Amino acid sequence: MRIMSLFKVILLFTLLLFLRSGMAQDYTRWNLPIGAKQRIGKGTVKNLAYSPDGRQLAAASSIGIWIYDARTVTELALLTGHTKRVQSVAYSLDGRMLASGSEDNTVRLWDVSTGKHKMTFKGHAGTVNSVTFSPDGSSLASGSSDKTIRLWDLANGRCKAMFEEHTKPVNAVAFSPNGETLASTSSDNTILLWDAATLRLKYGALEHKSPVNSVAYSPDGRTLVSACWDKSIWLWDVANRRRRATLEGHGESVDSVAFSPDGKRFASASRDNTI
Predict the structure, then answer these.
(1) What pLDDT is stored for residue 269 in this prediction?
(2) CA angle, corner 116, sides to 113 and 118, nearest 5?
(3) Mean pLDDT to the nearest integer, 81-86
(4) Residue 35: which residues within 8 A CB-CB, separation 6 or more?
């Protein structure tokens, strides 16, 4: 009986090792798409941002902000301090600073070279969904679920202005390349364009038929692309604020859009698991 019991234990142990090995192989096979080079991030990843020189990649996650070497995909640092999930990250154009927005209603500023926390911006009453630096590096804009956009002075950490025209959560904010205009998108189905100098609305709202999840300027500042909950992408002529085209093809909400550096292409990411 002892021999049989020992044999059963050995058999069970062998089976467990085999199953664990098989599960690991299945995990790699089924969860890493063909052509993917590396899996990065731990926790739920909400947003990614490349540094201007292309050497670093920042990932906003439920754990913190992961910093990677973009070439080797080696973990360089984990920036922690937010008390809830990090929703958005953005590098300054000179690559020296990184901003993060979180479900804890705050924006944090980080020193890229040291990874140290520099400043915390408080004032929002809801999740900070989007952050973006002004091209000249003097200001930081943040859009929140509290329906407001705040413009922060990076020299002293104070709020320079608060925009309250949206009637539902603000989902994204983006500066024009020349820094003169700030675009904001909202679940109220609109895009608003703000004068960065006067801190006032420049024009009437650009109307959508559904919540607007993301917005991006072309590098020359002439075109605005917006991603919509209704699965569509809209292209706008900035000069006359008219819609130039509506692009369709995604099967679910389009959550993010971004132009290529040369402005000839843009990418879109959707909840239908396609880009």
Answers:
(1) 81
(2) 105
(3) 95
(4) none
Distance, CA of 138 to CA of 158 (rounded, Å):
12
Backbone dihedral angles phi then psi of residue 3, each to the nearest 5 degrees: -65, -45
Token pair for 72? 């080797």
Q: Among residues 259, 251, 206, which one has the least CA distance to residue 232?
A: 251
Cα separation, 275 vs 203, in Å, equals 32
Integer Cα distance of 174 and 140 in angstroms: 10
Q: Side chain identity at 206, as an amino acid letter?
A: L
Residue 9, number of CB atoms within 10 A of its CB = 10
Please determine, for residue 258, whether its predicted confidence score (pLDDT) is greater than 80. Answer: yes
Distance CA 158, CA 154 (A): 8
Two tokens at 204?
């009437």
The rounded mean pLDDT for the chain is 85
User: How far apart (Å, rounded) are the C-alpha atoms in residues 167 and 254?
Assistant: 21
Cα 117 to Cα 182: distance, rounded to the nearest angstrom: 26
Q: What DSSP character marks residue 20?
A: H
Please give the torsion angle defined by the CA atoms of residues 205, 237, 90 and 202, in that order, rounded to the nearest 10 degrees. Answer: -40
Q: Can you say whether the dihedral through the CA atoms of 34, 40, 44, 45 is positive or negative?
A: negative
CA distances from 250 to 183, 190, 194 (A): 24, 20, 30
pLDDT in tens, 89-137: 999 999 999 999 999 999 999 999 999 999 999 999 999 999 999 999 9
Backbone angles phi, psi at 15, to 5 degrees: -65, -40
Q: How many residues belong to the chain?
A: 275
pLDDT in tens, 186-210: 999 999 999 998 889 998 899 999 9
Count of CB atoms within 10 A of residue 187's CB?
19
| DSSP label at residue 251 | S
